[in-house]
Amino acid sequence: MTLKTRNHLNLILFILSVLTLLIDTIFLVLKIADGSFSIKQCTETIILSNNPSFFLTKYNPLCVIISLYFQIIYVSVTSMILLRSFEKTQASDIIYFYLFLVACLVDTFRLYIPVFKLNNTYSNFLMACGNATVFAKILIPLSLLYTVVMSDVEKRQDIEKNIFLLLLLSIFFAQFIPLNNAIVLPNFSVDYSFKITLNFFTYILMTVAVVTQFFYNKRHLYRQNTAIGYLLICIGISVLFYSTNILNLSIAMICLGVGDFLYLKELHNQYLWFD
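The structure assignment produced for this chain is given below.
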């Protein structure tokens, strides 16, 4: 993949994320204005097995809304940083990190379920939102792993093929995994099968990615800022998916913000040194 093509894809991702933020905000404001959406209604439509009374851990649908908007803003800001910081560097492997951002953006389709009152509708729109969530849950750990594993120069020859395979694999399993569209989870995602298996798969791949980044830095005598940043990004995005209360939302925002800064800043310094 050429440098020009990669920069064009990055620009497209930035534009899409900004448009998504704008469109989602317009939809939400219009729904609030005509009285068809409220936080109270969200609470009434969600079935909670356990709801702690402590205010930091108590279920709060507003936290879910904020987390989804933060996720969109995170994609917009990070894609802009990538465009500006890596515009002239041969960091072709960073394209896998773009896939991670794409998956984060797709995951925000969960927002449409409460905004358009899709729960209990059994509509194709609800199914599409559910499939989008599963797609993102699969693509996020895969793209994070490939960002690290495929960072060596000799492994950058098949980037286009690898991207196609990652997307195809994620789409296939997103269609294969059954959805229970009668149940909307507290984080506004449609209930799906194999949750434990999918979470185990996610945590294993993220752990492998962080460990691989650590030994890559050690082998090349780099500082471990990228490994620490990557660990924080993995923790942040995992917690953000379940940010149904103030505590989880705070942890996710801090981890993603600090992790992004550490990882991208140190990665940029490494490529400047390499170039």
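Interim note for the steering committee: Residues 122 and 181 are 6 Å apart (CA to CA). The two ends are 18 Å apart (CA to CA).
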